[in-house]
Amino acid sequence: MTEAYIVDAVRTPIGRKNGALASVHPIDLGATVIRAAMARVPVDPAAVDDVVFGCVDAIGGQAGNIARTSWLAAGLPEEVPGTTVDRQCGSSQQALHFAAQAVMSGTADLILAGGVQSMSRIPISAAMTAGREFGFEDPFSGSTEWHRRYGDQEVSQFHGAELIAEKWGISRDDMERWALRSHERAHAAIVEGRFAGETIPVGDFRTDEGPRDTSLEAMSRLSTLRPGGRLTAALASQISDGASAVLVASAAAVKTHGLTPRARIQHISVRGADPIFMLSAPIPATEYALRKTGMSIDDFDAFEVNEAFASVVLAWLAETGADPDRVNVNGGGIALGHPLGATGTKLFATLLNELERTGGRFGLQTMCEGGGTANVLIVERLG
């Protein structure tokens, strides 16, 4: 089995809902990051074997296999194919996993993996709610077998995040302190230029819009999302727009094209957990990855754990014993946003750059996902 090398990883700045990227068509947003990614490496685009992109709610402007349409809109060779992946919030991390698997298997040498999402133009869960015109209230309402197994329990990320906070005894104050730290870390990263190496402009838009000047007092005044609950809007990831891309290469491609790989994929896996809790799967998925590799949580210099909700990260920290000072050190989705289909490879670009900035060797990335699954990736920095 050959090794999968990371040649480069880039992303757009992340735009707020109805912000700087709201007017950009999703295909054009994908094309922008694809064009930029290919321009940064000495590779003939015709040598790319496939384009694998994540995208959730693939309807409207995001329909029609946006991996393929974005590549073509970027003006790149028609003979290069593309496919679009939906593993909910982990879609582009799964795209990266598929790219690595293809290279490791020897069936491909160069794959561009990434993702795109315009949540301003295509609202979250739009693909699910679109089914109402066909007589279904949600994806589960017509399924006898689903209800036989799970009954009438609510299936939603909000419910799952509340269940996690309750089960792990995570208070609203705990979550607000983590959220504040996310904003503070993101502001510091922007001021210090830590994202400069991974971020490509979209027109005149060059800086992430999400981070806010907030305080514990300001967050304490917000109403909870549900009566009697602990979560508020300040404790959830922001609705966002963005795109990201990673070029994955085999050893043969590295030699043929004279590339200098920045990192090597050490492990990829995905595991499932209770779909009602929905967002707790990063815990067993991380445990599984550590067992498979024989590594310890203390072996890692940096972690990216997607901040879908503050409770998700805090429960993961409690169970894994990871050092919180190594987790999301440049802020997370609460501050920087979570453009669903693009977030996986966006986080990877940040993880890779953080390892290079600090001289760290190993990084681990994991994401909770709709349906109760979670991807885990372990990367080793080279050089």
UniProtKB/TrEMBL annotation:
Keyword tRNA-binding: no
An example molecular function term from Gene Ontology annotations: acetyl-CoA C-acetyltransferase activity
Thiolase N-terminal domain span: 5-251
EC numbers, comma separated: 2.3.1.9
Family annotation (SUPFAM superfamilies): Thiolase-like
Thiolase C-terminal domain span: 260-381
Sorted UniProt keywords: Acyltransferase, Transferase
Similarity comment text for this entry: Belongs to the thiolase-like superfamily. Thiolase family.
UniProt protein name: Acetyl-CoA C-acetyltransferase
Species for this entry: Rhodococcus parequi
Taxonomic lineage from the root: Bacteria, Bacillati, Actinomycetota, Actinomycetes, Mycobacteriales
